[in-house]
Design brief:
The protein is an alpha/beta fold and 150 residues long. The protein contains 5 helices and 5 strands. The protein is globular and about 40 Å long. The termini are far apart.
């Protein structure tokens, strides 16, 4: 898809989401073997009138369609915000290998906050998780979006 580094592409997807009036969250799915971006998406909940159209879910759907597979073992997800519980469940069901995220989300996060989905005994697959990547940049992008909407 692109030679852009995965997290940069996620930030670009988040900026595109903000330009559409969506909460600026972007996600990409990468094959770590060669660095190829398999899928990239930004939030589209407003545009699609779909509360599940989060960046992570859309990227997972796109990657599964591109590969013709219902699961994505061995692939990595980069996202600008800590995934919520909905997205954490989708990540688990997709069997993604690793999740890298930018800003922590104390209010709506489902990985390091809230339900801590991957730490539950009922979670069948827990990816490796690395949070806080370019955390300030990710948080600033979200703050700017909400400040401008007020």
């Amino acid at each position: 898809m692109s030679a852009m580094p995965p997290l940069e592409r996620a930030f670009a997807e988040a900026a595109a989401a903000a330009a559409r009036g969506e909460v600026p969250v972007g996600a990409v799915i990468v094959d770590p073997a060669d660095g190829r971006i398999i899928a990239a998406a930004g939030n589209r909940t407003e545009e699609l009138a779909d509360p599940t159209a989060h960046a992570e879910v859309l990227a997972i759907r796109q990657a599964c369609a591109a590969l013709g597979e219902p699961r994505l073992p061995g692939l990595d997800l980069y996202v600008t915000l800590e995934p919520c519980a909905l997205c954490a469940a989708a990540i688990s069901f997709a069997r993604l290998r690793r999740v890298y995220f930018g800003a922590y989300d104390p209010k709506g996060g489902g990985v390091e906050h809230g339900p801590r989905f991957f730490q539950q005994p009922t979670c069948h697959h827990a990816p490796d998780v690395y949070g806080g990547l370019q955390e300030r940049r990710a948080a600033d992008q979200l703050r700017a979006f909400f400040r401008d909407r007020r």
